[in-house]
Amino acid sequence: MKALRYHAPWFARTTRTMTRTGCSLSPMIRDLPYFSVTKRRENHTAKQFFEEDKILMRDYTYDLKLASIAKFPAEPRGSSRLIRVDEEGKIHHHKHFAKEILSLIDRSHIVFNESKVVNARLNVTRKKGDEVEMMILDLGDNLQKNCSDAKLKVMVREEDAQCRAMYSVRGAKFRVVNVIGPWIEDEYSNGNGTEVVVECEVQDEATVASLLDSVGTVPIPPYLNREAEISDVSAYNNVFASGEGSVAAPTAGLHFTDKLMAEIGNENISFLTLHVGAGTFKPVITENAREHEMHGENFAVNVGEIQRIIECLQVGKRIIVVGTTSCRTLESLYWCGVKTIAQKSSLKTGAAAQENAMELTQDEWRSLTDSSEVAAIDALQAVIQGKDPSEYVHGRTSLMIAPGYDFKVVENLITNFHAPDSTLMLLVSAFLGSSDKVRKVYHEAQDLGYRFLSYGDACFFSRPK
C-alpha cells in the first residue's frame, strides 16, 4: 500500500490558476518538492539537524494486503483480536479483545480520548452541476461559531480546485478563499484532492455544528472506499464519546464496550480530549520523514483528570494509554509543562506567555531537550498549577513522534494496526524502539489473518526494558 506521488503538471497548472485569479501562492505549495524549495519549521540550525538525522520512510513501511483492510468493524463490538508485545519484546496472541483484555490491564489506570466524531464529509455540488466530495480537515475552534464567521480548512476531491470556486449543498454555499495545496491519499482511497480554505454562506444564523449535523455524513476513512452506512454512526464512535470536534475517530477505543468500561471501573479511568484531524490519514510522501509537515490538533484536558494521572505516577500505578491521539496529548502536555517551567524561571508571565506554553510545534521538543530532565510529575503539575480541578487545560499540538523521540509519560499503548507511509507507523516504531520489530509484528499479524486499520484488530504494546 504505497502513497501516490505528486504529479508535476498539476502543480504548474495550479500555480498559473492562482496567479490568474489573484490568489496568493500558499507557502505550502511553495514548499513542495516540485519547486525545489525546502522549508525549515523551527530555526536556522534545523537544516543541519534534518540532514544529519534523516528518517527514510522506506525503512518504516510494509506491504499491506488489500484483504487485510477491515472495511467493517468487528461484530459485536469488542470481539476483535488482540496482539500483545510485552516489555521483553515477546509476542502474544489473543482471540477476543473484550474477554481477555481485563487480565492484561489489571491494576492499571486507563486513559481514553473521548472526542466525538462530527459529520465532516459533505457531497457538494459544483457550479457545473456535478457532485464532488468535500471533507472538513480540521475544525479548530469553528464548531460553535456561526457559519458566517467561520473559515474552514477542507479537502475538495478534485485536483484543480480554484480560488473563488463555489460549492453548494442544501442551501449552504462554500466559497474558496485560499488554495493551500495538494491533498494526497493512498492508492486505495477515492483519489487525491486539493486542500483549501472556504467561507460558508447560509440563509439563517446556523452554527457550523448544526450545519454539519444536517448536511454532513459520517467521515469513515477514505481507504474504506465505500459510502457510510447507518451503522457507521455508532460504529465509528466510541461508546464513551463526549464532546464533538473530531473529523476522524480515535479508533483504539472502538474495542471497548459499555460492559468492559464498567468492569474497568471509573476509579481506574481518565478521559482527555484531542480533536482528531484528517491529517491522520495523510501519508508521508517525502523520502525523509523529517520533511513531512505534521498536522495540528486541538486538545482539552480536565485539571482533575491530570491530577489523577499525576497521582498514579506518584504511587507507581501502571498507566495504559488508549490510542495514539491520547499518547500525543499526554506527551504534549509534558512538553507544555517544560515550557511553562522555563517561562517562569525566565520571569515570562501573562496570558500571551501561557498561550504560547500550551502550543507545541512539530519538532519544538528538540529545542526543549536541555530541560528534559524535568520529571513527568513536575511537568504535569506545572500545567495545572493554580487551577481548580473543574477547569480545563486547552492547547494545540503538532508534535511529531518519530524514531529518536524520548517518551516522557507513556509506557503502555493500546492502538490499532496502522497504514504504511503514515506518521503513526513512525510513532509505534519509536515506541517499540525498532522499525524491524514493528514490521515483524505486522507481517506476522497479516499471515495470521488479523484485520488492519481503523475498523481492524488491536495491539497492546509496552515500551521495551
What is the topology?
Layout: H1 8-21, H2 27-30, H3 46-52, E1 82-85, E2 91-94, H4 97-104, E3 108-113, E4 116-117, E5 121-126, E6 131-138, E7 151-156, E8 166-169, E9 172-183, E10 193-201, H5 208-215, H6 232-235, E11 244-246, H7 258-264, E12 269-274, E13 297-302, H8 303-315, E14 318-322, H9 324-345, H10 351-357, E15 359-360, H11 364-367, H12 376-384, E16 392-397, E17 412-416, H13 423-432, H14 435-447, E18 458-462
Parallel strand pairs: 1-18, 3-12, 3-14, 4-11, 14-17, 15-16
Antiparallel strand pairs: 1-2, 5-6, 5-8, 6-7, 7-10, 8-9, 9-10, 12-13, 13-16, 17-18
Explain what this protein looks like in three dimensions:
The chain is built from 14 helices and 18 strands. It has helices at residues 8-21, 27-30, 46-52, 97-104, 208-215, 232-235, 258-264, 303-315, 324-345, 351-357, 364-367, 376-384, 423-432, 435-447; strands at 82-85, 91-94, 108-113, 116-117, 121-126, 131-138, 151-156, 166-169, 172-183, 193-201, 244-246, 269-274, 297-302, 318-322, 359-360, 392-397, 412-416, 458-462. It has a ten-stranded mixed β-sheet. Helix 9 crosses helix 12 (376-384) and helix 13 crosses helix 14 (435-447).
